[in-house]
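Support request from a user on the community tier.

User writes: "When I paste my structure tokens into the form, the page sometimes reloads and wipes my input. The last time it worked, I copied everything first. Here is what I submitted, just in case something in the input itself triggers the reload:"
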């Protein structure tokens, strides 16, 4: 029985790790995966990350490996580290788009010019002679993509502290969010438009621009949200184009520029807790602090 548990543990670990972004991989073993575990993860057929993100993680991993070995973190040592470990040869370069390859792989200088030219030709489905292909010996030339899987996303929903409700229209609505732990935010659930009785069972077309900013006002994400068939008097899912990391104790801002229409403000609790994290909220309308809010919940992972 003990042997069975031991044999299942690495598989369970790989199943879990494959569902997260490389920032979570970086958090393993004080920020560094072992070479053996890295190779096992790269052998996975199911993965949350795309090949471009896996390559970016390899660059990070090689720099950390150089630090652990006491080596200077220069391009020669990074190249040697990646080639000697065998990790580079597990990246499915032919699954990258030409744009991703030219923007991510080529500028890294990890591959030689001959390797880049040969891979680019294969990505573009151009014929490559045997002499040029020789430099790719050992590289993964498979065109079978990994199965993209979804991460484990949790939701932190705020409790309603009072049944009293306010409303707003044609103004800049924003809420400050301060997490207690490092979380990867995927999106939010925000209020949909209010309706009168005659429109209660109908739908409308939503249009708004949402910004996620850090404590210095820098834009971390922008969503140009347009969706039809949104129900009145409910909540709608505002999904970020790419998840954003929220650091503990740092105040972030969700800013929504709503189109014309009347939207509700509910008396939510200013502190909400969920598995592994809690969030502090502060709402402002046109720069004025208000005790109600349009934000119902946060969708996040680790």
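"...and here is what came back when it finally went through:"
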């Amino acid at each position: 029985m003990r042997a069975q548990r031991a044999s299942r543990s690495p598989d369970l670990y790989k199943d879990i790790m494959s569902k997260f972004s490389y920032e979570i991989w970086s958090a393993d073993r004080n920020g560094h995966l072992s070479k053996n575990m890295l190779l096992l993860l790269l052998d996975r057929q199911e993965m949350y990350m795309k090949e471009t993100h896996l390559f970016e993680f390899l660059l990070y991993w090689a720099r950390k490996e150089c630090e652990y070995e006491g080596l200077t973190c220069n391009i020669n040592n990074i190249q040697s580290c990646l080639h000697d470990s065998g990790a580079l040869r597990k990246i499915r370069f032919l699954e990258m788009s030409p744009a991703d390859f030219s923007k991510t792989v080529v500028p890294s200088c990890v591959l030689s010019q001959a390797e880049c030219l040969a891979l680019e030709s294969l990505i573009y489905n151009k014929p490559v002679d045997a002499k040029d292909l020789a430099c790719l010996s050992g590289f993964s030339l498979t065109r079978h993509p990994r199965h993209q899987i979804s991460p484990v996303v949790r939701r932190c929903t705020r409790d309603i502290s009072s049944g009293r409700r306010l409303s707003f229209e044609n103004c800049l609505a924003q809420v400050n969010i301060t997490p207690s732990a490092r979380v990867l935010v995927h999106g939010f659930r925000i209020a949909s438009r209010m309706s009168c009785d005659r429109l209660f069972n109908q739908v409308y077309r939503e249009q708004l621009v949402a910004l996620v900013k850090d404590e210095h006002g820098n834009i971390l994400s922008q969503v140009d949200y347009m969706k039809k068939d949104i129900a009145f008097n409910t909540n709608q899912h505002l999904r970020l184009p790419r998840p954003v990391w929220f650091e503990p104790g740092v105040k972030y801002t969700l800013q929504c520029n709503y189109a014309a229409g009347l939207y509700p403000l509910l008396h939510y609790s200013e502190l909400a807790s969920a598995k592994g994290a809690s969030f502090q909220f502060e709402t402002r309308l046109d720069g004025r602090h208000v005790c109600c809010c349009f934000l119902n919940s946060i969708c996040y992972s680790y």
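Agent notes: The reload is a front-end session timeout and is unrelated to the input. The first strand starts at residue 46 and ends at 47. Residues 172 and 286 are 5 Å apart (CA to CA). Escalated to web team.
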